[in-house]
Structures are given as structure tokens and as C-alpha cells.
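Let us work through a complete example step by step.
Step 1: write down the sequence.
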Amino acid sequence: MSVLTARIAAVHTLPVSLPAHPALVVRGAKGTHDRSDFLLVRVVTTEGVEGYGEVSATPLWSGEDAASAEHFVRNVLTTALLGRKLAPPGALEAIMDRVLAANPFTKAGVSTALWDAYARSLGMPLVTALGGPYRDEVPIKLSLSGDGEVLEKAYDAAVSSGFTSFKVKVGLGIDGDLTRVARVRELAGLGAFIGVDANGGWSRAEAREAVRRLSTFGPAFVEQPVKPSDLEGMAAVRSLGVPVVADESVFGADDLARVIRASAADVISIYLGKSGGPAKAVVQGRVAETFGLDTLIGSNGELGLGAAAQLHVACALPALSERLPSDIIGAHYYAEDILETPLDSNGKRVRLTDGHGLGVVPRDDLRRRFR
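Step 2: predict the structure and record it as C-alpha cells.
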């Protein structure tokens, strides 16, 4: 079996729809995420090697969903990839960029499957193919949202899964935001790690007031305090003394460059979906590090395959935040797991395994349904 001669023989897809764990439904400034309608991707090489990926796309994030992803994968990207050499995967990513504009989450799902097949063909974990590992485990946190009994049930469910670090959804009105954060601080205790995520829901004036009033509860960071395009406003929030995480402000390399020039963030939240694939995500992290920015891995509610890819990218980054946990939550967020063998995650950290490629595959019943 030679990776140098292997070509793309087939690309298969499988739409999946999974409900979130009822107590952990995310309610934020960008809406409610109670179900994920995603697309799984399988690439098969002429050597018989299979690679898997996941399109974890939601319309509010990038204008993509499972339906658009399946259309573009089957009718545009597959046509462009069939018969092409598997190595190097970066050349295949360039082809995808030439034949399809935008749609980064869709490309990321196919890219992950290509890199998974490539690493499996080489007989090594994906993290090694990406230049790592720099670590073999990553600390993680979980989002909490809702109010009153809903919030308390979310906290109880998170703790029962082992989580001790949290991100509270805000940007829904300052008074309610403060009440929500205060309750989580009360539940978790003074020493617990708590940050806040506004998803761009505050105006500049609201952000200033909210950060000032939230300081009582010791937030470790504020994520995307104002709208993604308001880099000047983000820089102003930074001056208030709480670390600012750029999430929606950074999709591709151009966005990252603008944030760096504007001194708009302390930390970049890196997604495979936003960046367009695992190798591009690693490049983003390296660029951020070069300019003195911290990085963490953010989440769009990835299922098991997406979470495995997040983990490999996190471990391939030379520098990953030691202060702020990442959002590699995978099956913790869902009522079921799509993986044959779950990730090694206890709510406090997620750990690499020794398997080739992603080190995981979908359940057998799902593998039989790809077409």
C-alpha cells in the first residue's frame, strides 16, 4: 500500500440528525441549538483505505447545512476529486477552493476525511501527519445557558459528566446576563473556572457596562463581546482588563490578519469548520502564536468525528492556551454517540489514543448507510 500512488476512488455521504442532551441545549444570542443536522463524509482510496469527516454546519454560522453540504459534496467536490492523487491533501484542498466558493464547513468535512485517509495510509495518527503531537490531552469546558431551573439542570448535567470548567452564554440583556453568571458562580463556587460568551450580542456600550458589572464574578474571559465586524469595539473591551476571545470575528486567514492588525483579541477560537480543514486550522494557530495571541479550540456542536478532528488539531498546535480550556465536547452534548468507540473524555480533559488517522470510526450501523 503506497500513499504516493493512492487516488480518490469514491466519496460517500450520510446525513445525520441528533438531538442535544435535553438539559444541555444551548440558548445564546445567535439562537437555540437543540438539534444538529450534520453530514458525515467518507473518502475511499484506490488502495481501499477509508477516511472519515464531518460537516458540522449550521445556517446561522456560515449559511451552510446538511442539505447544502450534501449537494456540494456530491455534485461539485466529488466530481473535482475523483481520480486525483491523495497526496498531498493540501493540493486537494486547493482544488476544492477553485471549484467551490465559501462553504468552509463543507470543505472542512471533506478535508478531514482526506487527511484521515492520508494519515491512515501512512500508518500514523492524524496529529503526527499535521506536525505533532505537542501534547496528548486537552483540558475542556462546557457551555451553560438558560435561566432559573433550566440553568440549574444544565449545571447538574454538566457536573454529572465530570465538567468543572464552564462558559456561560450571555448577550441576551445585561440584567439577565448578570443573574445567569451570578447563579453559575454560586453553584460552581469561587474557585471554579467560568468565562462568558456574548456571541456578538452586546453593543459597545452594553459590553462596557456588562464587563464592568460582571467583574464581581471573576470571569476568566469574554468571548465575542460585540458584533464580529466591530474590531475597534473588541479592542475597546480588551482595554477593560478581561481577556477577549475572538470567535465569529475569525473564519479564514484574512479575518485573522484583520484581528491581529486591530489588536482586537487576546485569544483566537479556532474551528476546523471556520478555517476549512485540519491543516488550515493548524496554520491559523501558528500564525496567531507568531503574533503573540493565545489559541483554543472552539465548537459548533461537533459530533464524535468532528470532536476527534478537533482533538488532533489541538494536539498538533505548538501553542495551545494553558489558561483557557477548549470546547472539545463531542458526545457529552448529545443523547447518543455516533462513534464505534467513544473518545477518551472525562469532562475535565480529552485524551488522544494510539489509532491511525482520527483513531475513531462511525458505528457499524452508520457505516452501512453511507451512499
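Step 3: interpret the result. The radius of gyration is 20 Å.
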